[in-house]
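Summary for the steering committee. One of the milestones for this cycle was to obtain a three-dimensional model of the protein with magnesium ion bound, which we needed before selecting residues for the alanine scan. The sequence and ligand used are listed below.
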Amino acid sequence: MADIIRLLPDHVANQIAAGEVVQRPASVVKELIENAIDAKASIIKLIVKDGGKSLIQVVDDGMGMSATDARLSFERHATSKITDAQDLFNLNTKGFRGEALASIAAIAHVDMQTRTENQELGTQLRIEGSKVVMQEPTVAPKGTSVAVKNLFFNIPARRNFLKSNQVELRHITDEFHRVALAHPNIGFHFFNNGFELFNLPKTNLRQRIVHVFGSKMNERLVPVEEETQVAKISGFICKPEFAKKSRGSQFFFANDRFIKSPYLHHAVMAAFEGLIKPDTVPGYFLYLQVAANSIDINIHPTKTEVKFDDENTLYAILRSAVKHALGQFNVAPALDFER
Ligand code: ADP
Ligand code: MG
């Protein structure tokens, strides 16, 4: 029998990878903003139209790219962030897979403009379904702008699966909240259909939380602070009386990256035990810093699930940190009454 196995062409491989990386417009938002952060941007602008279905654009003032790098950035497994497998165990960037731009460009129309500090002219580039249709020098500010149009134009099934503009915008906003809370020291703008939804100047964490969730949040926040050999924990929990039936303000960040962790959530719930009604959930914004080599981020393409080396210890530290914070908050008024 004749040989029948063949290597898939790049654009097909990219489209397959895109299935994992790009679920919906919000995934594109996440990837583009993370790239801007990795490029050391100090101000990031997010512009979307029609829930991201017709436009998702991220403009940063970061390091930009040379003309060659701009072209290469769309190749699969092309990255400036790691060089060998060892680096996977010591990640200091959001990205490392070199897959996002290749995936996005496989299933959308992408316009990039970029310029590094010491280039006289910048580069503009247009890619449609993995094909470079234009690349030429252009006048551009320092930094990078990536505009993604007509997402899933070549995958009708995916395009039809998208929810209403309003629901997709909701997902984008969730993603925006996560990244804005992870990086209060970066300024963010967020425009939807020409209307500015958020203007977040760079600031400290408390102000960022209040900016995002409104001034009523300020009185609810109780600081959490704990430092051990395994982890440093900081951030805020919300006072027990503001626990809610619906979830919405529960945020964990590990090494500046939003993560989902039912296990760590349980640790927080354990600390709140007896203080809140059983069917309610407290709000929290908790930041874990652990050694880069004690966390595995490479579990899933979207990187929101991670694996900690010493999860049980982390659980215990977190629970005690939250308990301690709650204790201080509860004890203070009681002492006042006794005097
Ligand atoms: P990864 O982020 O995993 O490296 P991406 O496909 O997201 O993979 O990006 C590929 C490369 O393109 C990055 O490693 C980086 O060098 C470059 N790049 C992407 N976005 C930007 C940006 N906004 N500013 C500067 N460089 C960028
Ligand atoms: Mg990336």
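Key point for the committee: The CA atoms of residues 73 and 149 lie 18 Å apart.
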